[in-house]
Design a protein that fits this description.
binds flavin mononucleotide, 8 helices, globular, 10 strands, alpha+beta
Amino acid sequence: MAEKAPVWQELLKRALIEKSDYSVAFALGTITLNGKPSVRYVGLKEVISIPSSANDISHSVVNSEPLDASTIESARRPEFSALVFTTDVRSPKCAEIQRNPACSLSTWAPESGIQLRIDGTAYIYKPAWSQQGAHPPEVWLRPDMQSSPSAPVVNKVESIIHQADLEVHSRALFDGLHSRTRAWHTRGIPGNPMDSYTQGEKEKWLEELQAGDSAETEAARNFALLLVVPEEVDIVQIVARGHDRRWHWKLSRDLSWTVTELVP
Ligand SMILES: Cc1cc2nc3c(=O)[nH]c(=O)nc-3n(C[C@H](O)[C@H](O)[C@H](O)COP(=O)(O)O)c2cc1C
């Protein structure tokens, strides 16, 4: 029997269908190399869902009345999931994630009054197809396991995500990038001072990058997937009438979810 996803996964997938590119934007919080919080927006590209094996599933506890009966059913039959973003591997957030993969995402949908917060572990995936000449290609830019509070689940998670065939997903996402976005990956290093580049280099950055251009190989070398595996999810719904509501999901070691209603 096909397994249903928790309600927040459904909300994300619906938002991706209903909204255009980049409009499902999340504020992504990471910890800088100096130990300070840093937040920027990233555009959600995909939500990968992998059904948990029958052995992995245990029934979640529902402590109070959620949205409706179907919500309870959804929350009881979890799927393993990862939020997929694309990024430039040279951007500072990638080094930050390698140092400390703990991260937090948040978005706000005014039309439904829903705030979604996702705390989890981030992974940087450098596709093998983009690394010409690297033998063997190193596809995971691995977090420092010592400092990761999630270290016990990291290996299990990597092996599960692998089932999603990230080589195929990443190629499709790269090919689907707008030519302007693809060209972003051939420009100077994100965050570097502009005056460290010549006028000639900067003029070249204005050119769009079409599929098949020779610079595409360079763009691909700097392209990476940024995956966030949720571990705790919090939804607050602000309503015009009646009580505001808040739910909290927590991922257990056996990859099942527990949902609890909280005071908003
Ligand atoms: C709406 C919006 C969507 C964005 N989407 C992405 C994205 O998907 N990936 C990305 O790396 N940067 C994206 N950016 C740019 C980042 O916010 C950020 O400026 C850039 O990645 C450098 O970040 P860093 O210095 O924290 O590494 C987006 C910016 C905006 C305003």
